[in-house]
Amino acid sequence: MSNTNKVKQFLAGLAAAGGAFCVGTAMGWSSPASPRLVEEGQYFPITPNGMSWIASIVTVGGAFSCIPIGYFMNKIGRKSTMMALVIPFLLGWALIIWAQNFAMMVSGRFFLGLAGGAFCISAPQYSAEIAEKEIRGAIGSFFQLLLSAGILFSYVVGAFLSVFWLSVLCGIMPIIFAAIFIIMPESPTYLVIKNKNLQATKSLKWLRGYHYDTTQEIYELKSNLSEDCKEKNSYSIVIKERASIIGLVIGLGLLYFRQMCAINAILFYSTDIFAASGVGLSADISTIIFGIMQFFSTLAASILVDRLGRRVLLLGSIIVMTITLFAIGTFFYIQSIDPETAETLGWLPLTSLCIYILAYPVGYGGIPWLVVSEVASKKAKVFTSPICGFFAWALAFLVTLSFNDLANLFGIAQTFWIFAFASFIGILFTFFVVPETKGKSLTKIEELLSRGGRKEKQIEVNNKFVLK
After folding, report:
1. pLDDT (0 to 100) of residue 267
2. Could you say which of 161, 184, 207 is where a domain stops?
C-alpha cells in the first residue's frame, strides 16, 4: 500500500473532523457566554447556578446519544449518520439564538450535546476505517485538533461579539461541515459489511487512488468480517470474547483518566490562576491564550502520533500533568496558610498551568478517542465505542458537577491533590495495560488483544523466525 495516494485520505479525515469543530464551538461557547449572560444580563436574567446547568447539560446530551449511535452507524452507515447529526446541531443553535427563557437555552444546549456525543463516536470510527495503518494516527488526531480549533473559535469570537452573534456564527458551522462532508465517500468497511462490494471498490479507489488495485484489501475486509457478520448484533457481543473485553477495559480506563486528570478543574480555575500570578490579564485574553496553546499543542500531537506512538505520548502527557496538578495544589495550599508567601510564588501556578495546557492535548486530550476506535474488536465495535462514549460524557458531567462540592468539602488545594493522585494511577494504567497500536492494522491489533495484549515476540523455530 506504499504506492497509494494518501492525500484524499487526509481530506476525508479532515472533512469528518469538521464535525469536531462544531463540537468544539459548543464546548467553548459557555466560557465567553457565561459572564455576558449572568453579569451583563444579555437575553434574560440567569443565576450562576442556572448558568452551571446551561454549561454542563451538554455532557448529559452527549451521554444520551452515545448508546443509540452504534445502531445507526451499523444501520445507515457512518457517513449518513454523521450527516444526520447536523439536524440536532442546527436545532440546538436555533433554540439558543432565539431563546426566550431558561428552558429554551437548556434545551438548545442539550441538543448540542446529543450531536456532540454522537460525533465523538462516529467521526473517530469513520477515520479509522478509511485510513491506512501508516497514517491512521495522524488522521485520527484531526478530531482533537479541530475540536481545539472550535473551542478557540468560540473564545476569540466570544471576546468581541455578543452571545447572540457568537451563537449565530457557531450555528453556521454545521452547515459548512455538511456542505463539505457530503462529497466524501462512505466507509469501505461498512460497505463490505452490507455486501455493497462495487460501492466499496469505488470508495477505496477514491481514497487510495484510481490506479489502486482494491482486490486484496476487499478480500481482507470480507475475510475478517465474514464470521463477524454471522453474530447477532447485541451488546452481549462485547463480553463474549477476550479481545472485546480487553479493548473495552482499555477504552474505559483511558477515558476515565482523561477526566480524572482534572481538565475541567483547570478550565474552571484558569482565570483564578492567571489572577494569582499577578500578570493582570483579563479573563477573555487569558482564555484566548489558553485556547491558542491548546490548539498548537494538539497540532504537535497530530504530527508526532504516528512517529513516536500512542503510549509514549500518553505517558509523557499524564506524567507532566500529574506533576503540574500537584504543583498547583501546593500553591493553593500555601495561599491558604500564608498569603504573603503565595504572592511571591505567582510564577508557580501560571507556569504549571501553561505546562499542563501544553501537555494535555499532546496525549490524553485526543489520543484516548483514537485508541478506542483502534482497540474495539470488529464484532463489538459498534457497541464498544458507544459504551465508552456514554461513560466519558457521563463522567464529565459528574466531575464538573461535583468539583465545587469537593473544593468546598476538602479545599481547593486538596482537590487538586486528589486529581494528581488519580493521574498518578493513570500513569500505572497507561504503562502496564495500554498496548502500542502505532503502525498496526486493525486486524493485527485485535489479534494482539486476543492474546491478552502481550507484545509480539520473535522466536526461532528451525532457523525460521515466527511471531508468538
Report:
1. 67
2. 184
